[in-house]
Write a structure and sequence with these properties.
Blueprint: H1 2-34, H2 38-51, H3 56-68, H4 72-79, H5 90-102, H6 106-119, H7 124-136, H8 142-152, H9 158-168, H10 173-186, H11 193-209, H12 221-231, H13 234-237, H14 243-259, H15 267-278, H16 281-293, H17 295-304, H18 306-317
Helix pairs in contact: 1-2, 2-3, 3-4, 3-5, 4-5, 5-6, 5-7, 6-7, 7-8, 8-9, 9-10, 10-11, 11-16, 12-14, 14-15, 14-16, 16-17
């Protein structure tokens, strides 16, 4: 009995040391990947897989390293076997689909994304990538995939980005505004942020230009409430939309929205109200619309309101913006 206990102790120590060594090796590879040194990442990951061939996390990072190193053949050869095992997650399908997309094989990519979604129907990344494949072949059913991604995985940002751009090109500016601003708050420092700030400013202009035109569709309860509340501020818009007038319009909108009884819960509007309560809403609107309208004027505003803008920046960096499940109103 004593020898058996000694054996198990020694076995546990060896297993722990082995696992610790694998984790350290993986972290080394991740550092290479983060620094864009994919050749070294590939070298380290291949060595790690020699002693731990069944490690899915190592295999996924190896496939990604090959992919980013433009070695699509080895990337595909690494990821495809993972799709045959039960432990494969939605990221395995996303990686495989993206490899096929980069190899200019959109039909294969589409098939992979759809297969993945049959197993992982709440995967925002898979809905987003499938939508992009459809959009690239001018199949406008792409918006249905982005909408499913928003509904089923509301904290994944990229579906909002693509949906906002889609609606901006349509007659429906409600959702280009709402989805665009949600994306800005999910990815405030993204390289796509300036594009969406411009889209948001232009969407508001087009919304007020079209305010008295015939409705392009039948609106649901949420959309009707939004339009009714925003249209009360159309007089302010008549003088032109600037960061200052938009701040006034949006302030009155929020006050009206929460004054009404039984308005639907919406995280974005809750955030607006919080910013108002904290005295940061003007700085927030300058961050969006001031930088979109005129960068030099925006910089002058920052220079004349340094404490206000610093307080907003600190507040923004201290939080993560997420949409709760169930707050989906694009029916």
């Amino acid at each position: 009995m004593y020898l058996i206990k000694i054996f198990f102790i020694l076995f546990s120590l060896v297993s722990f040391a082995y696992a610790q060594d694998t984790n350290e090796t993986h972290e080394t590879a991740k550092k290479f990947m983060k620094n864009g040194d994919y050749s070294n990442a590939i070298l380290v990951l291949n060595r790690a897989l020699e002693s731990n061939p069944g490690d899915i996390a190592l295999s996924k990072d190896l496939a990604l390293s090959y992919y980013y190193n433009l070695d699509y053949k080895n990337a595909l050869g690494t990821i495809k076997p993972l799709l045959e095992i039960d432990e494969a997650d939605d990221q395995c399908y996303q990686i495989a689909g993206n490899i096929y997309k980069s190899m200019n094989m959109p039909l294969e990519a589409e098939k992979i994304y759809k297969t993945g979604l049959r197993k992982f129907s709440f995967s925002g990344p898979l809905y987003n990538d499938l939508g992009e494949i459809l959009w690239n072949k001018k199949d406008y059913e792409a918006i249905k995939e982005w909408e499913k991604g928003i509904e089923r995985d509301p904290s994944y940002s990229r579906n909002y980005f693509n949906a906002a751009k889609y609606y901006y090109l349509s007659t429906d500016k409600i959702w280009s505004i709402l989805y665009g601003e949600i994306f800005l708050n999910m990815e405030p420092y993204s390289n796509k942020t300036p594009e969406i700030k411009d889209l948001l400013l232009e969407s508001y202009k087009k919304l007020f230009i079209d305010v008295n035109k015939e409705r392009p569709k039948e609106y649901n309860r949420f959309e009707t409430a939004f339009l009714t509340t925003i249209n009360r501020q159309s007089t302010l818009a008549g003088a032109g939309l600037t960061p200052e007038t938009l701040a006034m319009i949006r302030t009155r909108f929020i006050l009206d929205w929460f004054h009404e009884i039984k308005r639907p819960n919406f995280k974005l509007f809750d955030y607006h109200r919080q910013l108002l309560q904290e005295g940061l809403f003007d700085a927030y609107n300058q961050w969006i619309f001031g930088s979109a309208q005129n960068l030099s004027t925006f910089q002058n505003w920052i220079n004349t309101h340094p404490e206000e803008y610093a307080a907003f920046s600190t507040f923004q960096k201290s939080r993560v913006f997420k949409i709760p499940a169930g707050e989906y109103y694009q029916k």
